[in-house]
Amino acid sequence: MLDDHAGFVKRLSCHHFRRSPLTNLHALVGSRICHDLINPLGAIGNGIELLGLTGVGAGPEFQLVEDSVANATAKLKLLRLAFGAASREQVCSRIEILSILDAVAHGGRLRYSWHVSGDVARLDARVALLAAMCVESALPMGGEIDLRKSGEHWEVQTQNDRLTLDPNLWGPLGRNACPDDLSAAQVHFGLLAPMAEEAGRKPQVSHGANWVKIAF
């Protein structure tokens, strides 16, 4: 079912990603998928924790399962924030976002630096995370993604000598347009502009030989 949904996203033409009921429908679909998967993963995590308390779970195999469940749960929470539905009244706590980013980065090649004090509007958090996903796509070998907020101004950026910017993705993004022929793995490039518009913002892309920044 997830593959069918991914294929449907891939086939969508660019105009579908403009602010529309269909865009909102996809946000609800994202929320539903993440919600339905997080609950059983949480139950598995609780079961693993109980096994650990009884002494049954020991050794590297048990630790591998525990780490995998924690990472999968964190990724689903991240995807729910980035692709799920959001309203102007909703907020995300700093603690929640930090815990998700730390768990997602655990044991991987990516690191996130969240330089934002206090809680943030969920609409803004969604734009920031979509921007981070775009930046992540330019880091095939991993690296550090810096997210910061000063007043009402946000910046999501990275500096890396192995930065790879696909002009077919970043060119349209710089014009707040949807790239053509997006794959499911690149859908964040098509969602950033309309989700930013919903938050009352407009992304601005700048880059050099070894850095890229998305401000809004």
Automatic annotation (TrEMBL):
According to the entry, what is the taxonomic lineage of the organism? Bacteria, Pseudomonadati, Pseudomonadota, Alphaproteobacteria, Rhodobacterales
Q: Which residues form the Histidine phosphotransferase ChpT C-terminal domain?
A: 96-208
User: One Pfam match, by short name?
Assistant: HPTransfase
Q: Provide the alphabetized UniProt keywords.
A: Transferase
| Entry protein name | Histidine phosphotransferase
In terms of superkingdom, the source organism counts as Bacteria
Q: Name one GO molecular function term.
A: transferase activity
